[in-house]
């Protein structure tokens, strides 16, 4: 599923084996869980990733925070 986030709003993606595409508009994106695949288009203010084996693709971001194991 694809979503366009309202400007500046905090967005959370969590779960197991989620496959999401989000169009960032200066948002803070938090991703947690196991084996999620998330594509972030546009400009994100912050991307925070935790959990295991998540794969995140981002066009443009100011800050990235990561914890957990085998996140890419």
Keywords:
72 residues, mainly beta, 0% helix
Structure description:
The structure is a single chain. With 72 residues, this protein is an all-beta fold. The protein is built from no helices and 5 strands. The mean pLDDT is 92.
The largest sheet, given as strand count, sense and whether it forms a barrel, is:
5 strands, parallel
SS-based class: mainly beta
Enumerate how many helices there are, as a single number: 0
The low-pLDDT segments are none
Strand percentage lies at over 45%
Count of distinct strands: 5
* Net shape: globular
Overall mean pLDDT stands at 92
Topology:
Blueprint: E1 2-4, E2 10-16, E3 19-34, E4 37-49, E5 55-66
Parallel strand pairs: 1-3, 2-3, 3-4, 4-5
Q: How is this structure best summarized?
A:
This protein has strands at residues 2-4, 10-16, 19-34, 37-49, 55-66.
